Amino acid sequence: MCTVLVLLRPGERWPLLVATNRDERLERAFDLPDRYWADVPGALAWRDRAGGGSWLGLNDDGVVATLVNAHDQLGPLAGKASRGELVVRALAERDAASAARTIGALPPARYRGFTLLVADRAQAFAVSSDGAAVRVDALAPGHHMLTPEGCDVANAPRVRAYRDDLRAAPPPAPEAGDWESWTALLRREDADDPHHAMTVTTQSGFGTVASTLIGIPAARDAAPALLVAPGPPTRVGYVPLDTKTRQT
Q: Which of 25, 73, 124, 166 can pair with 119 through a Cys bridge, CB separation 3.0 to 4.6 Å?
């Protein structure tokens, strides 16, 4: 039940802002963002140890890619490739449009259902698949939300609950390290219904396992902002990472 918050605003000092909570089985191990893929040296991303791919990352050209599994399609399935490879493939491209075309051309039957955001300083796309067909939608400037139901699905519980709050929240100011308006959203809990919660806590071994904040600056020679919480953001603080060098 992952959630992605997006603000695309070309021409601004920070034209792309992305924040995510990853919801997964608690025992599924992962590694902090780093440059793990020798064949895609520009990619800086979280690594899922089980599948070897990623659910979120950025590259040196300012492309951001993040994946949300389709509703009720969590985890691997015999005969299907890991969806984590889609993020790494997208980060091999130099702009969001190329990444969207690349992912959109892959055979849909290879993967379980997903929605993938690919975005850069100027454009954003939602690439979605139900396992039978792939759809690529260009996103207009402004706010967007990805949930297991898809991108900006009006009747999705989290979209209904938080869309207006997202639009009303002051935009984060990465240069000042100020993400409070969005982290307050990402920390929202609902003990009665995890489908409405941003930070999910259950007794079934499933919940929010990581949170990420990304800001892409307009200046190509400026460093992106990348802050990570390797746990529920209600319990674990965000730590800034160096986006120019390896972490290990």
A: 124
Runs of H (alpha helix) within the chain: 84-90, 96-104, 157-168, 180-186
Taking the C-alpha atoms of residue 42 and residue 25, their distance in angstroms, rounded to an integer, is 29
Buried b (16+ CB within 10 A) or exposed e, 113-146: bbbbbbbbbbbbbbbbbebeebebeebeeebbbb
Contact 36, 3 (CB under 8 A): no
| CA-based nearest residue to 216, from 68, 5, 7, 33 | 7
Residues in the chain, how many? 248
CA distance 236 to 207: 14
Per the structure block, which two tokens stand in for 100? 């969207």
Among 141, 73, 66, residue whose Cα is nearest residue 108:
73
Tens digits of pLDDT across the chain (248 residues):
699 999 999 999 999 999 999 998 888 999 999 999 999 999 999 999 988 999 999 999 999 999 999 865 566 556 678 899 999 999 999 999 999 999 999 999 999 899 999 999 999 999 999 988 999 999 999 999 999 999 999 999 999 999 999 999 999 999 999 999 999 999 999 867 767 889 998 878 889 999 999 999 999 999 999 999 999 999 999 999 999 765 55
Task: Give the C-alpha distances (Å, rounded to integers) separating 185 from 15, 196, 234.
Answer: 20, 12, 11
List Cα–Cα distances, 152 to 53, 57, 142, 146, 184, in angstroms. 25, 21, 12, 6, 20
Contact 58, 44 (CB under 8 A): yes
Q: Is residue 7 within 8 Å of residue 16, measured between CB atoms?
A: yes
